[in-house]
Automatic annotation (TrEMBL):
GO terms for cellular component: catalytic step 2 spliceosome; U4/U6 x U5 tri-snRNP complex. It comes from the Eukaryota. SUPFAM superfamilies: TPR-like (SSF48452). Gene3D superfamilies: Tetratricopeptide repeat domain. Its main location: nucleus. Residues 53-86 form a coiled coil. Residues 13-86 form the PRP1 splicing factor N-terminal domain. This is PRP1 splicing factor N-terminal domain-containing protein.
Length: 361
């Protein structure tokens, strides 16, 4: 009996399900799935947090990187600015704020004052009226209706109208290139500067001619011809200044002093200029006398006469020169009548001096 009960009990125990088996197969499986779902949500939230942190850090690094790049770019622009930036800076420095707002077209009329447009409209008439009157007078002269005709002035005005053909213009250009090369290769050659200036004068460009001859004076200061050409290409007032500068370099040139005297209007001014030359070149008298003795010793009497004649023009009141003339002519067969004529001329020029003839003959 006991053994039967034990067998039944074992059979009953085998039919009853185990708690562990129920937990894994039934209620236990549901808890694991829920737990896994919660862990997945926690991972997603963690991923979002990490991504937000990464984005924040990347934003901070990007802001720092952009600031550093801007600083390096500004430093590079300061060292090597663009042409557009340079022009903008020059524009800002050249114009004030009002002119900058007006795009550089600001003027004195922008201050709000009323503009007299009537006077502005009459300005061209005031300028053109004298020109029209001149043209009208010229037409009247051509038509024969003018009451007074100035043929000389009319012809002069026609000469001033330079109508050059294409061939002549081409010749001027070639000659200009030639003279330009000449003065560059040999800047000390004075005739080259004079020829280049004359070419520009012939072409009608007086400004260029004066500029060229000025350069010639700078390169050839000892050439009197260059200074004379420079004085000729200017008006009288500017010519006086040019010759005054020429005296500093070629003060011994008689041509320079005579040209300076010719630019003076009245006789007193001319004499004053020549007197300055005589005071400045007093020592030239001895030089001329020495030259006369040199050429006379070589038998060139005509040259000696020419030197004395030139010296007498500069120093007409020098008694020693007149005595030297008398000695020269007496030594080379001059007649007594001509010798007395020289003595009379000396007395006329130097009335306060005694006669030379009584002492020399």
């Amino acid at each position: 009996m006991l053994s039967v009960d034990e067998d039944e009990q074992e059979t009953v125990e085998d039919d009853v399900p185990d708690d562990a088996d129920m937990g894994m197969g039934g209620m236990g499986g549901m808890d694991i799935e829920k737990m896994m779902a919660q862990m997945g949500e926690a991972d997603e939230e963690a991923e979002k947090i990490y991504q937000a942190v990464d984005e924040a850090m990347d934003l901070r690094r990007r802001a720092r990187r952009e600031a550093q790049e801007q600083a390096e770019l500004a430093k590079l622009r300061a060292q090597r600015p663009k042409i557009q930036q340079q022009n903008k800076t020059e524009f800002e420095n050249a114009l004030d704020e009002r002119q900058q707002l007006a795009s550089g077209f600001g003027s004195s009329l922008d201050n709000g004052a009323l503009t007299n447009f009537v006077e502005i409209g009459q300005a061209p008439d005031k300028i053109l009226s004298p020109k029209l009157d001149q043209i009208s007078g010229t037409q009247s002269t051509l038509n024969g209706t003018s009451t007074s005709v100035d043929p000389k002035g009319y012809l002069t005005s026609l000469d001033s109208v330079g109508i050059k053909s294409s061939a002549e213009i081409g010749d001027i250009k070639r000659a200009r290139m030639l003279f330009d090369s000449l003065v560059k290769l040999n800047p000390k050659y004075a005739p080259g500067w004079i020829a280049a200036a004359c070419l520009e004068e012939h072409a009608g460009t007086m400004v260029a001619a004066r500029k060229i001859i000025k350069q010639g004076c700078e390169h050839c200061p000892k050439s009197e011809d260059v200074w004379l050409e420079a004085a000729r290409s200017h008006n009288k007032e500017d010519g006086k200044i040019v010759l005054a500068n020429a005296v500093q370099h070629v003060g011994q040139s008689v041509k320079i002093w005579l040209a300076a005297a010719d630019l003076e209007h009245d006789l007193k001014a001319k004499k004053r200029v020549l007197r300055k030359e005589l005071l400045r070149e007093e020592d030239r008298l001895d030089t001329w006398v020495s030259d006369v003795e040199t050429v006379e010793a070589k038998g060139r009497v005509a040259v000696a006469r020419a030197i004395l004649a030139f010296a007498l023009k500069a120093y007409p009141d020098k008694r020693s020169l007149w005595r030297r003339v008398a000695e020269l002519e007496n030594a080379h067969g001059m007649s007594l009548e001509n010798l007395w004529t020289n003595d009379d001329n000396f007395v006329l020029i130097c009335p306060t001096q005694n006669s030379m003839a009584g002492r020399e003959l």
